[in-house]
Model the fold of this input.
Amino acid sequence: MNQRRSGRPAGEPALDSATLRAVCARDRGALARFFDCFYDRVYGHLVRMLGEPTLAEDLTQDAFLRMHRDIDRLDPERDPAPWVFTVATNTVRDYWRSREHKSQQRRSGLDPEQDLALPDGRLDELTRIEGRESEAAIRKALADLEPTDRQIILLRSYEDLDSSTVGEMLGITPEAVRQRHRRAIARLGKVYGHHTGKAEGGA
Amino acid sequence: MSHDRDSRYEGAQTPLEREALDALLSLRPPEARAGARDRAREAFLAASDAGGAAEAASKRRAAAKLPYRYLLPFAAVLALLAAFSALYGTQPSERWRVTDVIGADGVHFEGQASVGAVVAGGVITTSDSSEVELQLGDEMRCRIVPGSRVVLPEPPGRWFDRARELEVVTGEVYGTTGGRALSFPLRFFTPELSARLVGTTFAVFRTELGSCVCLYDGGIEVTPEVNGVPVELPEEHRYYVYKDGRLSLEPIDARERMKLNMMYEGGVPEPEPTTEEE
Done:
């Protein structure tokens, strides 16, 4: 089995400075390349953060509209991925804080301030969509994590953004990112072990 | 692929943690429905339609609408009051002040003002011959000993946003929120007595072996990451959480007692000896 070691789709087109300058100038062709380059990554990230594919589709569209609105803030000389994920992260955060989300949580009997874990029923849907039941354990482990732990693992390990970049996105120091990342990995390992029936064999 | 060279595995310390990251990184990215992707692409490229598309997406998720226009004046007043409270209440009432320093050249404040000036929070590093003590109003004093690296939190807000985290990356920090030097503003009286509320005097170490919390007086609850079980620390005891998972509750030693007592009394601890016995 050919296992990819990154969440990034194979054959992702590169965006050079010239293309990014055209993106900032809102050139239609460049915008199309920018969208094609990042849509799958952003959608995948939001699915893993939210656990609801349909909601992730809506918020991915919202995120790209925000990017379009603020596209002139993009620095064409730097990798745009951190900025893209900052916008996506802020879109999720704003949704979680929204009245709509909290109303839905109340209607389903959940505490909107506490219950931000993935809804269990969606895990089966995700697994069916992926068609790989062997992924159930890690998906359940991700779902059991606190949203802040899940977010930092996805940004740091899955998207391979460095500590300084993640720190800028979350408004914390790179040292704090490393500390929280280490703690989140420890929690992920513990929960993953619980779902796979594997006990930690000691340090 | 060597886990040791892959930065995405940085922080994984056990085989199970690395296995969990392997499983995570092996996940295939989910694909959106073709219709959803096409709609998003079309909306993104057609900037003039962006407002309508966003509104349409919001409407699909919207709850029942309320007659906001009837509540608008009242809501505006409330909003102004809330904004003022939030603005005023989240502003820090105090700043960290440097109250003592030994070997100023060896104390580095990353991104902050220099020694002797007001410190707003950030990473503080001390060399092997430097120490620095900082005080936050009348609420807290902490001393960072030689060879330490500490992430000092921003001062808490006046009314809101008061929870804070102090991270000890390496080294030792001694701190007090009470003792003879400081006290909380709460005082209470009966006809026979008066009393003031004092806080907690403590130390936090991070060494090559693990981490340790020492309690001199007051109360501290320690939760090891290895088992997530909180422990209420008895006074004059320390709780060592070793990197290999061992846990040890034991009395504080003479050196720790001396330095903690100095912090409690409000004096300046003696500088570390130049020759280490450990």
Summary: Residues 1-13, 110-117 of chain A have pLDDT under 50 and may be disordered.
